[in-house]
Amino acid sequence: MEKQNPKNSKKTTLDTETESLTNADKTISTLKLIKFASVGFTSAAIDYAIYEVIVLLFFKGNIDMTGVSATISGIASTFVAYFLHSHITWKTRDPGKYGIIKFFIWNILVVVFLRPFLTFFFGLFTGVHQFVYVVVGWIPLFSSFNFVQTTTIYVLMTLVTMTLNFIFYEKIVFGSKKEGENIDMKRIRKPREKEQRKSKADKNS
Prior knowledge:
Blueprint lengths: L5 H53 L7 H24 L3 E2 L4 H25 L2 H11 L8 H29 L2 E2 L1 H26 L1
Antiparallel strand pairs: 1-2
Helix pairs in contact: 1-2, 1-5, 1-6, 2-3, 3-5, 4-5
């Protein structure tokens, strides 16, 4: 019966540790994306409700006023978003002394400049709006072309802003890990580092 080489056994253990850590990192990233999407859709639902009420009731579906509506609804949903993200998505992160300031400065820029620009830009896609209307127009809720048009603009705008928001929140606003998270990561990496040192010692011997 062929004996298993101890070095190969240790190498296999090291590979397993590395693979486990990689899988753990992937799981954490996936969960964070799920949480971000859930919080994002919740904030977007509040944002969208305010947006549609303003554009349809106050501005009577005037396409030229979608930028104003997006600005007002964006300000309201920003407060909701910060509270939810800080307590759910990045609850293990410390935004630091200026984290909340960074968050609101970024969102002010998005709300005041980016959102109005995107609503104007996507408002030019008349062919896309007509195509969407043809596809969903048979549904009673989407029987109004104005409603389909404003909704399409909103969805496209939201996809762009949510992508940029995740990158900014992850890298800048909630970039610092709390002490508890650092300790947990050390506990995960410590066995792997110990195994690596043993493996190097065996190779040198």
